[in-house]
Amino acid sequence: MTKTYHHGDLKSEAVKKAVEIIQKKGEVDFTLREIAQSLKVSHTAVYRHFTSKQDLLSYIAEEGFRAFSEKMMNEVPKGKTVRQKLRIAGKTYIEFALNNVGHYRSMFHQELRCATEQRPELEQVGAEAFMTLMDLISEGMKNQVFKKDDPRTVARFVWSSIHGFSILLLDGQFESLQSKASIQDGIDHHLEMIERALLK
After folding, report:
1. CB-side exposure of 26: number of CA atoms within 13 Å?
2. pTM confidence score
3. Quick one: pLDDT band at residue 114, thresholds 50, 70, 90?
4. Residue 161 scores a pLDDT above 60
């Protein structure tokens, strides 16, 4: 029997199902038809909400960035100094990636990020997430804790370094980082090296 949804439910269920598939496969590999079959609805019903796989992916990414930003806003202020805040921001980022694989892989997937146009909502929430880090870098420079430089350039360096580490960790590329304890040690050492690069 075909599953029925109240108005608006199918859209959120499709996003949820796609996230589950990505997490299970470890990569962004799904079709709208696959989503429809999983939810036991016609593929035309899913197309009423999403024009393409890329469109659905953008909603997953937006949801991910919002959850990530909320996590950062809750955790970062717990630091008493800008150095502690930066360390917390880095750990929060990596832990978010490890605990939200479906969303995280969607947030930075090439198929989405290389699109010529993005939904304004996704562009905005992505920019806000980056600004959170850049503001933290600016604070450290203003307080003469971090070396003076262009905050945007430094924020890109920090973000790309943490992002690269997160992706490699998710892909199992670090043979020495397998146990929970070794992963935490690896995260701490990586963030310490980033911090050293910023300090005056």
Report:
1. 6
2. 0.88
3. low
4. yes
